[in-house]
Amino acid sequence: MADRPVYAGVAEGLARQGHIQSAVEACYKTLEADPSDVDIHCLLAELMLSGDFYQEAIASASRAIELDPSCAPAYLVLGLAYDRAGGMWDQSILVWHELAEVEPSLVTAHVQLGEAFSAAAFDEQAIDSWRRALELNPAEARAMYNLAIAALKKEGMATALPGFRKAGELDSSQDDLFFALAGVFDDGNPAPDPSEVPNNRQSRLDAAGALAYEEDYFSAAELLRLILDDNANDADALGLAAYLYLKQEAVNEAMACALRALTISTRVPTAVYVLGVALSKLPGLNRNATKIFGALAKAVPSHAMTHVLFAESLLGSQRYEHSAAAYRVALSLDPACVRARFGLAAVLLTEGEYSAASWEMRRAAYHDTRRQRLFWDLFDAYRARRS
């Protein structure tokens, strides 16, 4: 027993660093000393899941739950293992329901419960679960994507399109594209205090971009105003100003700024982006948005989101074959792009490819939960409650 804490700490440290095989070995050594260690059974389940050993993950997570029915991270692993193994939707529904009981404010539990209900053909219960997820977090894009897919199945693409557009607005990956086009990246440092920004155009523009990235739109707008007071034809400043209007739902003003920037210079990708998004929001102008996003995808072919935006505009025009091709280009660039997978699933459903659509949605769920690193949040919270 004296060796057990040492092995347990080693196992956790190796797991957090991604050294799966060594962490598994340390878990087994710990369990030799104490077969009833809930934390280690839970940790071993997560390690097995990360290696796609689903049956082993199910066994370890089930043992952790037997030892402590309140072990939230074990429910998470068990539900994901059932989902990824496939064909066990009854068990999956039970597990996600239990997790939602143990952690009622956990949005992902309700999203996953809805997906399990949907896979088992309990469509109304699935919709209720996704709506509950959006009550807990109105910015939960995956729940909105699922509701859009449900609308597509019941009433067709015309009814589903507003849901896809709303989900896209909630998806942070679209903002990531804008800032990539603007050359603004997270360097780990906070945005500067506007009062301390040097009195020159480039410093102000850089600071405005950093402040917009941190969603301080008012301060960013003040710096842009100073730039435009000096030079009303600064195309880069106009492109960023257009984005700020867009984020405040001032679509007409955003489009006016973007058009002004593009009349000054056609080489302002941020203005092209804003113009495309603005056109896609206005009824009857989706065809024009398709042209804009098509040009953006050609100008920036290495970024998956440019192809996703192009695909979504094609989807709105019911050009399904071309839309599917654009989504597949996006996935070739970024296989973990959840938005592209849901979009491709929508196209496949319109073509009657239900099995392929279901596979795309499961892959979307797979990549979304891996991105969240939710296990460690639940694991740390679970241990803190017990200490």
- Portion of residues in helices? over 70%
Indicate the CATH class of one domain: Mainly Alpha
Strand runs, count: 0
Provide the CATH superfamily of one domain: Tetratricopeptide repeat domain
Distance between the termini: 20 Å
Average pLDDT figure: 91
Concise summary:
The protein has 387 residues and is mainly α. The chain has helices at residues 4-16, 20-33, 38-50, 54-67, 72-85, 89-102, 107-119, 123-136, 141-155, 157-170, 172-182, 201-213, 217-230, 235-247, 251-264, 269-281, 286-299, 304-316, 320-333, 338-350, 354-372, 374-386.
Overview of the molecule:
The chain is mostly helical and about 375 residues long. The chain has a domain at about 200-280: Alpha Horseshoe (Serine Threonine Protein Phosphatase 5, Tetratricopeptide repeat), CATH 1.25.40.10. Helices cover about 80% and strands about 0% of the residues. The protein has 22 helices and no strands. The chain has helices spanning about 5-15, 20-35, 40-50, 55-65, 70-85, 90-100, 105-120, 125-135, 140-155, 155-170, 170-180, 200-215, 215-230, 235-245, 250-265, 270-280, 285-300, 305-315, 320-335, 340-350, 355-370, 375-385. Helix 9 runs antiparallel to helix 10 (about 155-170), helix 9 (about 140-155) runs parallel beside helix 20 (about 340-350) and helix 15 runs antiparallel to helix 16 (about 270-280). The two termini are about 20 Å apart.
